[in-house]
Amino acid sequence: MGSYIPSTPEQRREMLNFLGLSDTDALFDEIPAAVRVNALDLPKGQSELGVRRQMEAMAAKNRVFPTIFRGAGAYRHYIPSIVKSVTSKETFITTYTPYQAEMSQGVLQSIFEYQTMICELTGMDVSNASTYDGASAAAEAVAMCRERKRRVAYISATTQPDVIDTVRTYCWAAGEELVIVPEKDGRTDTEALSTLLNDEAACVYVQQPNYYGLVEDCEAIGQMAHEAGAKFIMGINPIAAAVLKSPGECGADIAVGEGQPLGLSLSFGGPYLGFMTATKAMMRKLPGRIVGETTDKEGNRAYVLTLQAREQHIRREKASSNLCSNQALCALAAGVYMAAMGPEGMKQVATQCMSKARYLAAGLEGIGLHRAHTGEFFHEFVTLCDHPQPLLDALEQAGILGGLPVEGGILWCVTEMNTKDEMDRVIEICREAMAV
Amino acid sequence: MKLIFEKSVPGRRLSLLPDCDVPVCKLPESLRRTTPIGLPEMSENELSRHYSALERRSFGVNNGFYPLGSCTMKYNPRINDEMSALPGFADIHPLQPVHTVQGALEALALAEQLLCEITGMDHMTFQPAAGAHGELTGILLIKRYHAERGDTERTEIIVPDSAHGTNPATVSMTGMTAVSIESGPDGRVDLDKLKAVVGPKTAGLMLTNPNTLGLFEKDILEITDIIHKAGGLVYYDGANLNAIMGIARPGDMGFDCVHLNLHKTFSTPHGGGGPGSGPVGCKDFLAPYLPRPVVEKEGEGYTLDYERPLSIGRIKTFYGNFAIVLRALTYVLTLGREGIKEASTQAVLNANYMRKKLSECYDIAYDYTCMHEFVMTLSGLKKEKGITAADIAKALIDRGIHPPTMYFPLIVPEALMIEPVETESKETMDEAIEALLDIYKVACADPESLHAAPLTTPVGRVDETAAARHPKLRYEG
Amino acid sequence: MGKSERLYAKSHEWLLDLGDGTFAVGISDHAQSELGDLVFVNLPEVGDQAVAGEPIADVESVKAVSDIYSPATGTVVAINELLLDTPEALNENALENYLFKLSDVTERSELMDLAAYEQYVKEEA
Question: How many domains does chain A have?
Fold first, then answer.
């Protein structure tokens, strides 16, 4: 049996004697006999090596694809060595939320730096210390815009389906109406949006680039939202933000997104990182932890969790969110990633993603896999294909995770991780599979 | 210490990517970003030193005793981290075909089975990313349950005044009303007060057991019965499960759904505030409402079932914080049947040992046999010597110990809540007891000196008022 | 109706008839001192309807938040925007710094003059 308990039987007896108890059972006298259990139906405990074997056996049943052309909300990017080296530091791993500021300046400063970097990337004024993931960040952003007389949220149909589903759950919970703005040719139907918007509109949420990888006209959508008196929320890809017009430049009130591309592994979907930013005007509506700069008694610069009176532990039922943690270790990873990349590195990753995606799109076009949409895209695109499965199976056999089958086609994703050779292979394998 | 931005030198960079092997494309100018990105420009050596310096200015379980009440700061076994980082787990895409992720689904199914056994539940979802996220999920299960029965008048969730703030905040997020009930004189749920508020509007009760005072709700069977008879459901806030694993199960006490904090009870690290994991378990009759998808056994293997028409929907992308679940699974497999019970037993023994030792000087709020934690009140010292709970906490920092939780629960004035956990040795506890008794002496003899604490940290007591009045939330250059 | 004295509510707000059909609302000096260092004031919006005895605003200190109950029923016609950036002004002078102004006041809470309020505070302690 494995155990992490340092107390010896002698010490246990000593402690029991001090308490005047004959055995440990007496500690639980207040638990009614009717609910006491004798023995749980659990396997026997194991040694470290024993557990390692069991876990490794399970891991071995998964297939790790050396080549991946699938994104749709989870993206394989290069993770610099320094990122994992920093996030493996024991103190960062085992520390709690930095409640005791004086002994937590390191964690607090790392979050303050993360907040600054995310503001820089999004072009927004303020950021929180992060939240669970992109989808819950979107749902919390929608909640930030809810007002007594404005209780209808609008979300574009071109948003990642998991995000729409999550926002829908939160809206249902709060009794807020959610309107899905239809798409037209793969982009948000702005004409439909203008007819749908009314004076109860709280916010309009658009994903940039959208689920199909296409670039949305965010400035126009933002303007429409503002004309209706609603807030404008952008859900962005943080890599694309290095080259695409930023939410700040598009006039967004809130910008959120999935931070996983910033140095986090795929890990079958989590943990990831939800980043949340806003304009100064909406600062006090931001949920979750926020770190601020201040001084100590001597006037030294110091950092501390701040604006706490917004939060559940003080406001209780009047708090607008129950959020009371962040993904600090993931935010740390993102911070190290952005610092390692620097402004030029971020642009380089984004440019390579975009350039390579265009190379693959052109190659697939050449073998008759035509793009489903026209216009600018970032690192994802959809090709029309009535029977995607034989193609994807053929790719799988070659150790390649192809694009995601979606309605009427395949949603491909290309990042800096994909080489020209890999793409040429994909094109060749698809060509052969289509010829059968 | 300088901020990373203050160490940045234009032109410095790491060499991370090969040149682009295809023709380079650019976006049309109208779509292009024009604002520069003010990220730091660093060398790898400087980056490494910067974060090492930040690590030194932090305090983790690896640095010393961390008796932070309600947070279960137990040792985080390193094997857990290593197993979650196996390439077979860390490098799989969440949208791979299910036949290529059978090991991942098996791990989720096994974790579900083991944690259901520990809690007495029938099903579990791992989608919630934290305890508060689990609370939201659980209360939505209850909301959906009533809605499906057409029982739309049930809009009230009862919450004891000793509860974590997340409980009432969660209720508000779900469009229901939190009804607070005052704790009885013994710090537990007052049955008469409970009976007075239940009725046709009662949707449910949220309860932490043992409660936030570290006391077991001995009337638990009556409590859950009162709620059930009124037509409501009972939600178990698993924050304090570390006291009773292998000894009693929420499912046997009459709870209908629970959330667990894998980052507390099941030894996954806190990471400075996350990522955690807040799985929600429920009884069979609530299973149709669980977030989709759910892992199902299919023949010899596993599949993901998305066809869940009654589901509350999603609360997060994909399947939750998978890598955290793997850590917890590693832990449960390591401890097993006997180890799980032993962990809780030792946690409770340690807490009672410290409680009785400290009661020599300090006032214990509700001084009965406690579970895994107990609460001291400093209101006597405050009145007599002007020493607050915060003063004691800051003095502990100078002695290399992380302070207990301060000012919680709200029903205890000047509260310090101590949770020693099972992975601390008697020697460590004895040192902490000695430190606390010594601080008490200083508080009586020379109270002024304590106001200056901490003196050994990189910064002294920080000005929280200035931070909140004129928020500076980012570096401005 | 001429300018009059501040009247106080048991919940520690004051109401001052400005004589021009509007009334200023603030918190008492005792209240600011009990609340400690204030870090933010959540004010209503112009046009909001205030109801006597109902919460209309709140004030935050670092670790607490307290509701402000309107001492009268009426329409909010102005807010003291100075407080949004300098909440410390309330700590410095709670009487000179109103929170908001009401017009069309129809109903008032039970209010006391300064002497009665001071007596009430003394008894409450």
Answer: 3
